[in-house]
Amino acid sequence: MKISKSPWLLHYDASSCNGCDIEVMASTTPRFDVERFGIINTGNPKHADIFVITGGVNHQTRHVVKQLYSQMPDPKVVVAAGICACDGGIFKDCYNVSGGVDTVIPVDVYVPGCAVKPEALIDGVVKALAILDKKREAMKNHETCEVPGASDNREEEK
Ligand code: SF4
User: I want to staple 6 with a disulfide (CB 3.0 to 4.6 A). Which of 38, 45, 70, 113 is the partner?
Assistant: First the structure.
C-alpha cells in the first residue's frame, strides 16, 4: 500500500456507551500507536480523510453525522467502529435508534466488536487507507468516488 499523504482522522460518537470511544483513544496512544501510519486525530471535518464513527445512529445524531460527512472533502472513507456503529448492536431495537451508520451515510469498512479492539480498529483503518487510495486514483481519472463493495444502505429521510 502506498500512502501519498498523512491521512487525518475525524472521530464522532453517534451514541456510543463510551466503551468504543475509549478504545479509539487507546489506538492513538504509544502502546498501539496508529500514528505510525502518519494518522493524526483532527477535530475539523474539513481537514479529515477518514471518518471513524462509534455508536449507533439515533434521531438526534443522524443530522450531525450527515453534516460532518458532507463537510469532509473528497475523497474520504468511513469506518464504522464497534457493533453498534455497524448495525445498531444491542441498542438496535431502542425506540430512538435508527440503526448503524450505513442508514445515514455510506460505510467503507465495518469493524465489529463490543467494544472494538484497538488492533481491529487499526486493521480497519489500514483497509480504509487502501480504499482511500483507490478513490484518489479514481478521482484523478475523473471516475466516481464510489468503490465497489462499499455499503450503501441509506434510507430516505422520513
Ligand atoms: S459496541 Fe459495545 S462498547 Fe461499543 S458502543 Fe456499542 S455497547 Fe458500547
Answer: 38
d(CA 35, CA 13): 20
Q: 23 pLDDT band (50/70/90 cuts)?
A: very high
Contact 82, 40 (CB under 8 A): no
Cα(34) to centroid(ligand 1), Å: 21
Report how far ligand 1's centroid is from the alpha carbon of 64 (Å): 19
C-alpha span between 83 and 97 (Å, rounded):
14
| pTM of the predicted structure, to 2 decimals | 0.88
What's the CA gap between 124 and 91, in Å, rounded? 23
* Distance in Å, CA 134 to ligand 1 centroid: 30
Neighbours of 6 (CB within 10 A): 11
Is the CB of 121 within 6 Å of ligand 1? no
Backbone angles phi, psi at 118, to 5 degrees: -55, -40
The DSSP output letter for 17 is -
For 121, the enclosing helix (H) or strand (E) is: helix 118-140
Give pLDDT, residue 3: 57
Specify whether the CB–CB gap between 42 and 81 falls below 8 A.
no
Pocket lining: 19 vs ligand 1, CB cutoff 6 Å: yes
